Amino acid sequence: MSQLPPSDIARRYRDGIASRLDGIIASQQAAINAAARLCFEQVKHDRLIHIYGVGGHSYVGSEEFFFRAGGLANVSPMFEPSLALAGGGQKSTMLERVENIGDKIVKAHHLGPDNLLIITSAYGINACTIDAALEAKRRGCRVIGISSAEFANNTPRDFVARHSTGKNLGEIADVLIDNHVPHGETLLELPGYPQKVGGTCNVLACFCINWLVMETISLCLANGVEPPVWKSANLIGGDEHNRKYLERFTPRVKAL
Fold first, then answer.
1. DSSP letter assigned to residue 14
2. Which end of the chain, N or C, is more open, meaning fewer C-beta atoms within 10 Å of its C-beta?
3. pLDDT tens sequence across 97-151
4. CATH architecture, domain defined by 20-249
5. What are the strands, taking DSSP E only, across 74-148?
6. Do 217 and 68 meet the contact criterion of CB atoms below 8 Å apart?
């Protein structure tokens, strides 16, 4: 196998991601503030924050919110294994395009007017996303979306992966945090190859997720509310720190 000469791929990828992150920082503070206020109210009133990662790589969003060092302990992910890539890549793609699944997931968790649902969807268009958002709103929930406005707005309203309403997540959610995932999801062009490479959705979504969590914690501290925050179990004292939250939330969070 021939050796490749030194390349600038890593630098170009870093620069592309950094540019997208700068765009998020420059444009999403108001959305983050509004979403953090909703999350703060849940912490203040000792209520859960429900998370739904809709399938494929968007499923990672629900995992990033959950049981994370430095993250909130009052988070309840609505894991649906059939939508995860671990259950089969093709199956995940097929199911997230099927209507009347996302609403059942919301119903199974008995969400109502006192609840907050955060939906992490890289593109914000598929049937499982829109059904869940519509059902949550029907039940009086507040909904935060973390998704790409660019991707959704550049996807035809009759595209096969869409919900029959043709709606974007941002048209339903109370707050949309735009993760700035590019249309097509990838960043870099390589010489002589027509397909762009270099995925973006998890890096950008996880930045938005952690920014939202940190702003929520900051808002709690500014208002005299103690935020329930996990500590790494791999630090000395981590298990002891986390024990009080495990005792408090295990009976209420199915995933714990």
1. H
2. N
3. 989 999 999 999 999 999 999 999 989 999 999 999 999 999 999 999 999 999 9
4. 3-Layer(aba) Sandwich (3.40)
5. 75-77, 116-120, 142-147
6. no
pLDDT per position as a tens digit, 182-203: 999 999 999 999 999 999 999 9
Q: CA 38: distance to chain centroid?
A: 15
CA 57 to CA 40: how far, in whole Å? Answer: 27
Cβ contacts of residue 25 below 8 Å, gap of 6+? none
Pairing of strands 186-188, 197-199: antiparallel
DSSP letter at 52 equals E
Residue spans of beta strands (DSSP E) within the chain: 49-53, 75-77, 116-120, 142-147, 175-178, 186-188, 197-199
Closest CA to 50 of 74, 67, 83: 74
146 DSSP β-pair partners: 120, 177
Say which residues have a Cβ less than 8 Å from residue 203's Cβ, sequence separation at least 6.
17
pTM of the model: 0.95
Helix, strand or coil, per DSSP, at residue 93: helix
In sequence order, the β-bridge partners of residue 51 are 77, 118
Number of separate helices (H) and strands (E) present in the chain? 9, 7
Residue 79's Cβ-count burial label (10 Å; 0-12, 13-18, 19+) is: middle
